Structures are given as C-alpha cells and as structure tokens.
Amino acid sequence: MAVREAEIISSKDEMRRWSRWMRSQGKTIGLVPSMGYLHQGHISLIEEAHKHTDLIVVSIYVNPGQFSPSEDLSTYPSDFHGDLQKLMAVPGGVDAVFHPHNLYDDGSGGGGGGGSSGDCDVREEGKGVVSCLEERGFGHETWVRVERLEKGMCGKSRPMFFRGVATVVSKLFNIVEPDVAVFGKKDYQQWRIITRMVRDLDFSVKIIGSEIVREADGLAMSSRNVHLSPEEREKALSINRSLSRAKLAAEKGQTDCRELRDLVIQVIEEAGGRIDYAEIVEQESLVAVEEIRNPVVFCVAVWFGKVRLLDNVEINL
Length: 317
What we know:
- By secondary structure, the protein is α/β, with parallel strands linked by helices.
- Helices cover 34% and strands 17% of the residues.
- Helix 2 (40-50) links the parallel strand 2 (29-34) and strand 3.
- The longest helix has 22 residues, at 230-251.
- Mean pLDDT is 92; it is low at 110-117 and 121-127.
C-alpha cells in the first residue's frame, strides 16, 4: 500500500485556505496540536481524531508564549524530519502538517522572529518579562486567560504558562478552523482549561481528551523523557507506581486526601524526586478536595534532575 504524504503548510493564510476548501467539499477536520518531537502518545491522539473527522491536521510549533525566560525553550527537543516519518506511518495517514515559523506579529509587519525555536535570554528576567515572546520585544499584546482554572497546580510555579497555551490554541483554532481538536489527558489541567475556553468563547470546536499513553514500564510518554538519564528514568517510575497505589487505596476505602497525598509524596521523594505539586482535585472544577466524595483526579508534577514530569490518575468512586 502506497504511503500517503501529508501536505506541509507553513503560512497562516495558506492553512486557512486549505481548511476552507476542504470544508467547502463537506469534509470535517480534526486538529492535533503539538510542539513536535512526536512519540506514541501523539500518535494515539491522531488515531483518536481519525474516529471523529474525515481529515487530520497536525500542528508542530514550539510556542514561545508559554515559556518563561528561565525555562527550556532553547533546549526543547526537535526532529521535524523524524516527525514527518512518524506521521507517514500513522494508520489512515495525516492530511496536512501545519508547521509555521512564527504565529505572532512582531509589530513591524514583517512577521519575523517569535518562531518555533531559538534562545530566550534569561538576562531580562526580573524586568517585567513573563514569557520568551515578550523577552524578544515583539508587538503581540493580546492574551487569552481562563482565570480560575489556570491558578492552581502548574499555574502556581508557571503563572503565565496557561496564558500562553490558551492564546496559541485560540490562534490555531482561528487559523485551522477545525471541527474537532484532541488533547492528551497527561496535561490534565491544560485539557480542562481548553475545554472551558471553548465553552466560554463559543468556539465551534469539539474538544476530546485522550487517555495517557505509557511506556511498557508505566512511565507516561513525554517529549521531555529524552532528557532523563538512565538512572533518573528508573527513579521516575515511582510516579506512576505511587499514583497507582493511591488509586487502589482509595478504591479500598481510603478517601482522606491528606493520607493519599502523603503516600505519593513519600514514595516519590524516597526515589529522589522533588515534588512541584501533588494535588487531588475535582475533575472539572480542579478545586482541591480534602475527602473523595465525587470523581477526582490526582495530579502531580515532579522534578528528576533538570526534567519536570507530569502525571495523573482519575479516581471515580
């Protein structure tokens, strides 16, 4: 069977024309947003999108608006050629890859800079700079915020992160004009924020949350896993192991969230991890709870070495 190559599109206007032409022919479009360096977790999102739409667009863009000057924008892994090879092997294929150099207006009309890679100068931190986009001095000044949902968990240590995510996803929705967009539940807070944004701003896009895909040993798949040393990767298995224990304990009647949190924190810290947060929250509101009485999700962010890993488990009692 011949391998179908995706159309590679870098221009915002060209992407919009492509989508509108396809929709004029009665086709539905699914969007899988990504920052590239694709793994099986991303492939599972594409496979999920195939269940809902006729055509699939994968965007590959490392968004400077969601990185602070002290974060890992310049070292975020990238392999565009490898990504294309993986996309060609997806059952059912991918119809278009949207790979823009820049999604932000630099204020000069030239559209230069603000692209999907490059350094972010930490020397400007402390002068009011809150993202790499602003550090570069570009003219973009409109941001989308989901004010309550963005405050906890990842929002505590990365206070401007979800502002950047919501804004770039809004831009992608306006450019690609998809009928469906698929997000992974590993980034649970992000999925809930995008779902709420779509509801509140009346985007005509159906948001689908796709289950976490794990390595054979249980580690949640992430593009950042490549930065783990072999020893750190082995220690990181404590994350899923401890969350699984907490879920089992809850199912056996332990509903005190403090006890469950202490269990997870102890296992991870004994393995050498540094906890950013470990929170048990309601699945939709993301409000922290003291006792499990309704469906909740146990979310953690953990540092092993210089790598920050996310994971979670839903608990439905």
